[in-house]
Structure formats: structure tokens, C-alpha cells
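Let us work through a complete example step by step.
Step 1: write down the sequence.
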Amino acid sequence: MPPTSRPTLEDVARLAGVSLGSASRALSIPAQVKPGTLERVRRAVEQLGYIRSGAAQALASRRTRTVAAIYPTLDNPIFAVSIHALQRTLWELGYQLLIASHDYKPEREGDVLRAIVERGVDAIVLVGSEHSDEVFELARKYELPYVLTWSFNESKRAQSIGFSYYEAAYEMASLVASYGHTRIALCSGIANGNDRVRARIAGTRAALKVAGLELRSEWIVEQPFNFEGGRQAVRHILSGKDRPTVLICGTDLNAVGAIDECRSQGIRVPEDLSITGTDDIELAGLVEPKLTTIHVPTVEIGVRAARKVVAMIEGAELADELPMETRLVVRASLGRL
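Step 2: predict the structure and record it as C-alpha cells.
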């Protein structure tokens, strides 16, 4: 029995009653095709079982219509939400998303990117502005446009989509000081290789200095951005003779872990220790007490990063970006003294 021939794009166009060009655009750039045409093409594709040849498409156009995004972790809800927005927007623009993580080990990022480049992508989305020379050299060598997300980079305004971690931390520390707290601890995250963490420490220190206060070195606790990191931070600050009255956490995950540790040790929040977070994930409004935190534009970062990187791929003129806005969300976990 002879093998069944594979359906072609011409077969799809014929069945859908559209031109070959319209069928191609419907599959490659659906946002630019009329809904009726798009629906007819999709029905034809489903009926025929048509699958595009990605290799042939890439050879013909020198594009894969794929964007890679490298994140420090896939566990944090803020990244999961932003990745969803990034992927959805890329789909609308006719591109696919390839996701990878270096698990907060920046020394691995070059290897991760090299493996991605070998598979073929048109551009990359990176988190933060601090990356190894190898990462930037690979991008240059393979002529890969890249977008820097989350931490806004003043020196690369045209390709930077994010906010100022310094300003966000400054606002939170100023709020804490205005509530009468003078003994303030910070669960910052790991500073090595992370420009966002260092900006958070600097912003906190600057705000406290304006208030006539000091961020004591023994109360800067570097812990991973997870629940256990928050628990460890509480254990650390409670082990000393002099205890802070508030713990500012670099993520809501840290803050929720810190609240859980306080509950285990019989420490009342906020009566004995106030706790604040950063990110405003859904859990921040569900934990008890509800978490004072910083709302960051998680979804918008993903959407704008997708639009920016596609514009770069397609050679559009790029406008300079401005830092995105964050805002304080005051809830019950921060008490007054």
C-alpha cells in the first residue's frame, strides 16, 4: 500500500477557498488576517491534518519565528504570570516562545543560551541587565536582538522593559520608617550576579539614611527567593540579642515563609514583628495577616517585552522606553509603633 502523501499548504488554501498567500499569513501572522479567513484556514488545517515544516520555513525566510526567554527560575509566580503574557502576545504576533531557566545560577546562562542558539531562534528575552560577556557575545555573533526585562536599564532604554528596583525598595523602606520602625531588617535575595537585589539593598539603605536610620549589615539576610528563604531569614534575625521590629522581604514568597516561621515560633505578626513583601502575587492577599507589598506590572512586562522583541526582529524603529510604575499595597502585616 503506497504511503499517504502529506498535505501541503496549497491543499489548505484550496480547501479553505483562499489564496496561497492568505493561507500562509493565517498560519504565520494570524493577527493580520481577517477573522473569517483565519477560521476557514484553521478548519482546513484541522481537516487535512496539515503541519508546517519549520525547517523549510526557516530556510526560506532565515527566520524560525521563535523567541527564547531565559528566566532565573520558573517557580516564582510573578515569572509564571509574565511568561504567560509574553507567550500569549507572541502568539498573537505569529511567533512561538521557547523557555529556559538557569535556576539562579548566572554562570550557567551562557550554556543555556548556547543550547538555545543551536536550535535556532530569532531573538532572546533576558531577565535583568547584568549578564556575562559570553551572553552578550553570543547575541552579537549570531545577530540576535535581545530585550532586557524586569530591571530597567538607563543605558539601554530602547531595549529595556522594566521598573526601578531601587525606587520600589526606597518607597517600601520609607513607608516602614514612617510607621515608626527604627530597627529594620532586609531579606534581600542573593546579591552576587543579581543587579535587582543590589538595587533593592541600595534603595532600602538610601531611604533609611534619609530617615536618619541605618541598615545594619547583620540584618541584611541573603536568602533564596522561596518560602524556606523567608523562614531562614526569621531564624537568623531572631537568633541575635537585638531584634528588629520589621522584616522587609525581597519577594512575597520570602514574606509568606517568614510569616509561617513566625507562627511556628509563636511570634505575632505584626504585633511582635512586621513583615512586608514585594511583587503582590495572589497569595499576598490570601495569607493571614494579609501582606503589605509592592505591586509590580507583571503582566505588562510580558506584553511589552513581546511587542518590543518582535519589533526588533522585524526591523521596526524603536522608541526609548521609560521605567514602569510600581505601587505600595498596604495591608495588615505592617503595624505601627
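Step 3: interpret the result. The mean pLDDT is 91.
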